[in-house]
Design a protein that fits this description.
4 copies of one chain form a homotetramer. Chain A is an alpha/beta fold and 236 residues long. In chain A, strand 10, helix 7 and strand 11 form a beta-alpha-beta unit. Chain A is globular and about 45 Å long. Chains A, B, C, D: It holds the Pfam family Glucosamine_iso.
Amino acid sequence: MKLLVTENYETLSQITADIVLMRWAENRRVNLALTAGSSPKRAYEILAERLNQVFFDQSLAHFYNFDEITLKDQEYGLTMQALTEELFNPLGIVEENIEVLDAGNYQDYDRQIAEDGGLDLVLMGIGGDGHFCGNMPEFTSFDYGVYRVPIKPGDELYKLIDESSPHTPGEEMVTFGAQTVLAAKKLVLIANGEKKAEIIKQALEGPITEDVPASILRLHPNLTVILDQEAASKLK
Amino acid sequence: MKLLVTENYETLSQITADIVLMRWAENRRVNLALTAGSSPKRAYEILAERLNQVFFDQSLAHFYNFDEITLKDQEYGLTMQALTEELFNPLGIVEENIEVLDAGNYQDYDRQIAEDGGLDLVLMGIGGDGHFCGNMPEFTSFDYGVYRVPIKPGDELYKLIDESSPHTPGEEMVTFGAQTVLAAKKLVLIANGEKKAEIIKQALEGPITEDVPASILRLHPNLTVILDQEAASKLK
Amino acid sequence: MKLLVTENYETLSQITADIVLMRWAENRRVNLALTAGSSPKRAYEILAERLNQVFFDQSLAHFYNFDEITLKDQEYGLTMQALTEELFNPLGIVEENIEVLDAGNYQDYDRQIAEDGGLDLVLMGIGGDGHFCGNMPEFTSFDYGVYRVPIKPGDELYKLIDESSPHTPGEEMVTFGAQTVLAAKKLVLIANGEKKAEIIKQALEGPITEDVPASILRLHPNLTVILDQEAASKLK
Amino acid sequence: MKLLVTENYETLSQITADIVLMRWAENRRVNLALTAGSSPKRAYEILAERLNQVFFDQSLAHFYNFDEITLKDQEYGLTMQALTEELFNPLGIVEENIEVLDAGNYQDYDRQIAEDGGLDLVLMGIGGDGHFCGNMPEFTSFDYGVYRVPIKPGDELYKLIDESSPHTPGEEMVTFGAQTVLAAKKLVLIANGEKKAEIIKQALEGPITEDVPASILRLHPNLTVILDQEAASKLK
């Protein structure tokens, strides 16, 4: 594990942006699975600026959503909608470079990734409960590849989505499991802010356990963890 | 995970020998941790033959013992004695290319490996209880780097060594833990014979759990598992 | 450059076969460009035997012909016909895993390789004139990617083909140039027999020059050269 | 070859700084050969700022000077003096992480690099005459490893140093040759300003020839070229 602690969120975001940029600018097909959400928000803004300042052949990079929550009466699920708004549209990523994971294809997806040449980079945040991608403690098993979790009204996740999204949740979440993520060539985990300090401590220094799903990422030979000082404040 | 099932132990051994040979013959320093024991016995014989048939600069490869059980009144422990007899002497590996892990240096060993450039290859067998290196189910924790396990008369391990070795066990075992092993660039796990079929099934298809330590190896992005048909006979 | 000198052609062939086997058995798409011709003949026989002894998922490997000489009134050119006979048929490689380079697509081929994820392995022989792939000294330029060489009756190459093949040559050769080959992740060059000793000396120890095209291969950071003792007999 | 054209020198420098930073922050020994001179000046300033903002274990990175011109009555030569002033001192790189190439050890240096695990990154500029490291057109041969060029009063190089430095030139230059540089895992070439436009065009689009030494870098499978718009202005 490579650990970088940055002075602040801005520096964290600059470094993250450049890591993504350098993988994006490859001279052969690369497969990138980048997280939606708040942690990479500023990094994606910087990336959008960079794309006005740096010119390279963007056509060889393919983008994957690493999880998805289906939504009723919507073509795209929660993650694809967020990625489209936060990443794909602002950065001008065209449809033919976007590989969509959904409830219809998740069973073949590990195979599809292998046929595409494998994942080159997975950029992730960490949840307050230690989840990465869609691997919540309540249903994580480290031996899962891409898998499906049914969602019903009354479930924690159902309520969360129902409240935070204008759409009604569908019947499931699909997500890359630990097997899928750890098969990638490079992993980057980012976290910022005091509210992440406790779970970062557990994930990086506590036991490796399905109760703190992100703890498993430490075992990958090419993991970079980038934290701001607040998120790192409880580390030894 | 790359899975190769071979017709028999001889083919398994030929492939294993050539994997080691190709890493050994690098044009830059490489760091190899190769197991002692019965599984690689024939592979090492083939390697010894190969070294009479293939000429290359052998000086850049460094060899590491990945575990050690100290022995009373002996300079070298159980593993180093076995490796010397089974690997180092028959293959003519000279002392300056052998990096010895022991009870005196284990605390600095992860650091030492990092300063040496990291491990390029770890070749392992699997125990009937699912152990790899010295990670027995009774004291495995996936977050361990190189660590020490005290041994006392009466312990399972003490009795085992006492019976199988002409020497009296010392006070401890030291071993690469999961963190150390999974940080390597490439892992190879070999197993042969019907007696390994059940544990192979558990390790490769069961849950990833400290109760079957080798199950964690599946999460490495560059693991090759080589089995003969008997060891593979219970796989789906 | 990694140099392995083997006692004889049989050992050279065994090692070559296992290098190809290990790349073939990847758990993600891999792209292999393997030479036709006399040098790898025995290696491919051993590979065919291995495929009866070693079971793995063969579906993720794609095979490329790295040069082609078109033939009049023939669907496939000289190289594809040879590869089909020597490699694809004996090894049971199915059509959907074969990527055909020909006069119709050569202009887009560097792009196609990039979109396929790049070449993982190029296995080559060396000609008595120092050529690799179709890069003959008379028209090699190190800055070429995939390129076309027109052939007319009266040309050296025309005569050679006309004599050695039951077919009439077409109007061109197409071939991976140095740019295409050196962009691959790994290169393997094999040569056996006394008749190769002089050109091997020139290619490995002489100046790097377009007059000895294979001399450029030495600059690749991941080149393995495997020779039998006869081919190596003039090296320092 | 990966080509990135940046809007201006500032963006070029930011990206370059982050490329170096990410290699520097490895969790195993890495070997970095970074150029002195005007092109990376701003990148090193940014790096110095970054080191006040980003905290990581710096101890595993080793720094190499890739050429040296000896100076009369001086312990260090021209390059080491420049690197000390521009890179090592401002960035706080300690002596034990600096590997000095000089006239006394150049003959063993390729071997030393191999024993150190090989070069992970070489960051270079390009001279107006197409030179990279110390490979001037007048004495470049692509088959050279680390080599020595004698210098006498009256030589072009002697005059140049004599004029630009407070010190009197010594008797030689030593430099990584093409063999040494192209054996590295990753190469980065940077150039900025209109005055570099013509040589960049020759090096990237012209023939690969010892008359334009940097033209050979294009053949490396992992070369990144970063230019500002002015330096890129003559490219197709």
